[in-house]
Every structure is written in structure tokens, then in C-alpha cells.
Amino acid sequence: MARRITGRSHGDPRTADTRAKVKDDYRPSRDEILRYIAENPDRAGKRDIAKAFALRGDDRIWLKDILRDLQDEGVLTKERKQLARVGALPHVAVLDIFGRDGDGILLAHPAEAVGTGEPPVVSIRVSRGGSGPAPGIGDRVLAKTFPTNEATGPAYTGRVMKIFEKRTDAVLGVFRILQDGTFRIEPVERRQPELIVDKEFQNGAKNGDLVEVEPARASRYGLPRAKVLNVLGSLTSEKAVSMIAIHAHDIPHIFPTDVIAESEAVKPATLDHREDWRDLPLVTIDPANAKDHDDAVFATPDLDEKNPGGVVATVAIADVAAYVRYGTALDREALKRGNSVYFPDRVVPMLPERISNDLCSLREGQDRPALAVRMVFSAEGRKLRHSFHRVMMKSAAKLAYQQAQAAIDGVPDEKTGPILDTVLKPLWDAYAILKRGRDGRQPLELDLPERKILLKPDGTVDRVIVPERLDAHKLIEEFMIQANVAAAETLEAKKQELVYRVHDAPSLAKQESLREFLQTLGLSLARGAQMQPSQFNGILERVRGADNEGLVNEVVLRSQSQAEYSPKNIGHFGLNLRRYAHFTSPIRRYADLIVHRGLIAALGLGPGGLTQDEAARLEDVAVLISGTERRAMAAERDTVDRLIAAYLAERIDDRFDARISGVTKSGLFVQLPQYGADGFIPVSTLNGDYYIYDETARSLFGERSGKGYQLADRVEVRLVEVAPMAGAMRFEMLTDPKPLPGSKRSFHKAKGRARASQSRPGSRGRRR
């Protein structure tokens, strides 16, 4: 029931006269607020809730306090300004259909874990007369979910938006023939068991083949058995490790014949609906081994007397929308892939080579269609105005980052020498001005070295390097950021639907966790609901040059929310920008292609613009491409882990310098800075004491000695076990435990917290 306001309650600032006037007003109970959020997942922001319950003035302040209390208690979570019950399904979720109920209605579970305990059951509703195939048992679907609010039966109903490709119960593994002639499947997932294959189920697999297998029901004794379904390739060939990730993450990597045929039939774009910019000396600056070039840049001083010291910066981007039209086979395949995926040994492109490496690649000296933005900046780096143009361009030079930087540093070559004064120096002058604007904006400035794996011809690791970060890299990055901002601003001004690139501020829970960690290092982070990137930058500046600089940067990164795509704008916290959209890589990202189509439609730049049908689907598309981006990141990370594990497999018993990158009840995660690789030390292998986990201090400490190990500690470890195909490594601790920071009083408080934790089910330490 709602609570009638009849008297002055705790925290109610109203006077008696005010209360008398509103005695008929109602404030919703906590249960009513939670019920509204559950029933309206897409309208669960603070303003939505206030409007639903007709709350005004002081009642809105009261509501804000209630919602904060519910978040602090762990009842609610907040994402993109929308509140949801912790453990509740998101409004749009990926579901696996597992069966039917007594009435024949399909039932599904969420594909990913939601909270703790049993996964919720979703009743799948299929509309009659709908187009396309109907979902069935075993399908994976994308669905909008709605809570049922019924005491019995499924907790949610789901309306199917998309059916993914058929899912099977097959798992990946490496086929091995042992010395005794028996067959085994070596797992490629860390938690996957080893399997036995009987000869009749070998299906032609040879030693070292990557295979799909169907596990049989596990027997009471011995290893479970399996049969080989498909042979995917040999691990003795090049690119085998990335193939594991491609199959494990269901990444489409073979273009259908109709897509290839459509791409081959495309004719080069003409000057129709375009300005002729072929005389403008735009240049591409990319990695030396880049095969496609989707952005080109140019800059010149602004000759307008009203803008002294200003510059005009131009960014031209490949006009992919000229070739990839909505609803075609090319477009459907690009959306299905969502983005290109980059492995150390291969690229899985979003578009066929005919489009990505030929017609849309801004090749030196060749006519290419582009969508360009011309931006005018003041001497202080403030953007004054911008304009978009659909053009035909001709790249004046194809340059590598190191090549362009060397020319600026005084070592030009045959290609950069002739354009040094006319093209390169004006670009660097413009970058100096844009950098002033960036410095004033104060985006989050994380300093995390990006390691690059160099491979031998056979696809194995040669060495791991940290490439130097040049001003040439920063120049292109800042030009692209400003072009992305201009795209979002133009589409907003034209009231054209678009997909933003959004990045929410860190949640209150993550802020508090980071604050507790920083306190263990003697650092403090101010409290406040409206955190700014500059506050994190202040912390990072304090540890610059210190031993724990890298770790603090990583922990700050982990505290951040994940960037994603959305038709609803909440700004970009990390870049400290109010509006931001991806525009500069349409060859590699479907989100950028949507923005290109939106600009073409909004500005009347000819054919290939965003259609009304496409605009109506942007919410669903944003969910899909955010998912494909996360899929690509996971596949890339898994591949690097497997390559490094295989590289170090020959170094069992070697000692390594490491640092503790994670602390759990089960043990310590350690990172080898030289390789960027992670491994695990089980708590059961830590000798000499009974180790207790202190979550607040992020440490394991000995019950008797009080000594232990803490996040960020530098230690020496020995490599004792490697599972290359699973990308897993186990280490042994060689460094003795140390006294932990803080007084005896804080130690005993930590011990008390840990003992209280261990009194709950599922918490236990280890003794050796």
C-alpha cells in the first residue's frame, strides 16, 4: 500500500502548513517502486518513476534518497540511467530455448548467468502470421523480456526479435593419439574436462586436429566419452589458434556465396551527388601493414581574420554506404558480423575484400568516394563550426605512423619530403591546437601499454613487444574523435535517429570498491555522485613513475563501465563528451555505417541514406552490435592467452618476476609484465599458514603470522603447469609473505571480517 503523508517523518523537511496542503498526497512504498521498475524496464529512470507516481518538489528528493538506499543495499543496479532489480533479466536478452511446458509453449533460460541461484525461466511467445522461421527447441534467440508477476510458472515472457544460427551441444577440443593408441580430446576451455573417444567415433580425425565433439553422458567411473562430429583443421597449420576462438565464439568467418556475388557485381562510384575534392592533398596514416585505409586527413591555417591562430581540419572517411545498401545480402552479413575481428595471425573482416580492401580503401593516387567533415577550430582548440560533404577524393600519399613521425622529427624520405611543409607540418600544427582543447576537456588519461605479439611464419610466437606511442598515433586519434563528435552533433541538430557510442560513469559500487583499494595504497578518492574523469586523472598523476603505476591504471580501468552502442544518449564519460558517435571506421564497424546513412539522409546527400524501416530498428541493432563487439573482444583475448601459454610451455620450472593482479578466496592471480600474460596460484599451495581472504584489503593473510600477499605486490613465481590450448597457466609462489600495511588494530578488524565471512556458506580458507 502507498503511505499517506499525515505527519512529519524522519528526513521530511516540510513545515506543518505545507504538510496540511498535501495531506492527500501519496508516497509509494519500496515494494511499489520495485514492482514498477520490474514491470517497466524500459522506463525505469529516476524521472520516469517520479512521473509515474506524480512526485514533485521535495517528494523527488525523497525518491532520490530511496533509490540510492536500494542501490547501496544491493537491491537495485543502475545501467545507462535505467534502474533494475539485481539479478533481473535485462529488457533485451539472449535466451536458449530448452523445452516446452504442458501446453506446448516454448521455455528458455538466459544464455548468460543472471545473479546467483537457478536461472529464471522465460515463456516464449510467438506471434501468429509472423514472417521468417519460428523458433524451436535448441535455438538461441534475442528477445524482449517482460516480468509476469505471477506466483507460479515462468518468471518472464519473451518476444523473439531474432533467431541466431542453430546451436548444438558440441564442444571444441584437440584430438590426441596417446602412446597406447587410445584417443583423447584435449580441452580448449579452462573448465572443460578431458574426454575419451572410442575408435568407432573417431570420424577421420588425426592427431593434432581441432575437432567438434559431442560429449556422451558421463559414467560413474573414469573420464567421460565423446564422439567426433566435425574436423575443423589441423593445429600444425598456421592460424590454428585463432580458429579455436572463431569456432568457440561462433564468429562468422566464411562469406556466403550470395554476399560474394553481390560484392563482385558492385560498380565503382561516380561523381554523381558528389563534390570533386581530388585536388585536395588528403593523406592516409596507418600501421605499416594495413591493408585497408578508411580515413584520410588534411589541415590548413584558417584564413578568416575573425579566427586568428585558428585551423581548418578535414577528415575524409570511406563512403561505404555508397556500396552497402540497407536490406541487401551485403548489409545483412555486415550486421550479422557487427565488426571486424583482429587476431595476431589473421583478420575476420566485416565486409568482403572487394569492398574493404578495394572499392572502399582510400588507396594512394586512386579516385575513391568519401564522406568528409571540415572542422574549424579556434587557437584555443574550441570547435567553432563544421560541415559535412559527400566527395570524390584521391589520396596524395599512403603513410605509416613511423614514416610520418620520422619526417616531422627531421628524417623525411622520398615520399614524405615533398609534402613535409605543405601537408605534414600543417597537420602537426593543427594537432597542437586540438590538443589544447583536449587538455582543457580532461578526458580519462589511462596509461596502459598495449602489447603486440609478433609471430613467426609458422604462426607461433616470436616475441612480445610494446610499440612506441607516437604523436602520429595521437594526431589521428584526436582528429577521429573530433569527427565523431561532429557527426553526433549534426544528427542531433537535424533530429535524425542515430546510434550513439555511450559510456556511463562508474557505478557507486565500483567507485566504493576502487576507493577501498586506493586506501590500501595510501591514496584517496573523493566521494560524490557526479564523478569527473579529472578526479581519476589526479590519482593517476600521483602514481606516475611509481612501482604501482601500471597496476593503479589497470584497477582504474576495471572500475569503469563498458562502452556500448545505444540510440539513447547518456554521453561518453571516458572522453568527457556530451555526445559522441562512431563515424570514422565504416569498413570495420557497422555502427559507423549507420551514422553514415543517417548523415546522408539528414543532409540530403544522395542515395544510400537511413531508411524509416532501419531507423525503427536502431534499438535492436544497437543491442546486436554491442554484443558482437564484446564477442570480438573475448575471442581476441582468448587467442592471445593461448598463444602466450603455448610460447611459455617450454619454460616449465623457470622463474619469472610477476605482480599480483587479482586476489580471491581461491588464490592469487599473477601477471607477467613482460608478456602481459596471467596465471593462477591456488591458495592451497601457499605454505606455512592458514590463509584468510580479506575482500576490503584485497589480500590473503596468514591466520597465525598476519603476513600475506596483497593486490599489487611484486613477487617471484615458478611456472609449474601449462595448458596451451586452454590458455591457462599455474604458478608456484617463491616470495615469502610480508607484513601487510596497517596497524595491529586494522589487522584484527580484517581478521574479524574474514572470520565472519567464513561463517557463511561457501567461504573457506586453506592450510598447508
Automatic annotation (TrEMBL):
GO terms for molecular function: exoribonuclease II activity; RNA binding. GO terms for cellular component: cytosol. Residues 1-26, 734-768 are annotated as: Disordered. Transmembrane segments: none annotated. Its EC number is 3.1.13.1. It is found in: Cytoplasm. It is an enzyme of class 3 (hydrolase). This is Ribonuclease R. It comes from Rhizobium loti. The gene is rnr.
